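Hi there, hope your week has been kind to you so far. Do you reckon you could talk me through the fold, stretch by stretch? Thanks so much in advance, here it is.
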Amino acid sequence: MEAVFSSLPGVTKVEPGYAGGHLPNPTYRQVCSGDTGHAEVIRLKFNSAVVSYAALLDIFFQMHDPTTPNRQGDDIGTQYRSVIFYTTPAQKTQAEAAIATLDESAVFPKRIVTEVLPLSNFYVAEDYHRNYYASNSNQPYCRFVIQPKLAKLKEYLPKLRKIT
């Protein structure tokens, strides 16, 4: 998701990391064990005059499977759960409303299982996770997982009512 959101106008910073667990300063290996409670996440900073939180939510739901618990593609485990960590009450309200709207309109064949939780701690991932696609675009994961998401984003962006 880092490459997807990094490519959006108005997104000023994307940081891969870990959140939602009980272990302080976890490593990737610890998170992958499934014992930390953390999810692999990205933290976004954005200019709301250029891109709205609602547009970011819309893109988030379109770029991954929000209906499968603890899994994204071939990656399985609680660290791959679909989750939104909010930092303001307004973000919580908007995220919950977006989920309700998508569920009511049956956009997806199954109900959305994305968790909406307050952000209590965020731990920045190791350096090799940052700008992963830009640094590793020929790796199989990038070619078979990230590139299709970027292509989907390119196709999807014009369908957004507007980005702000």
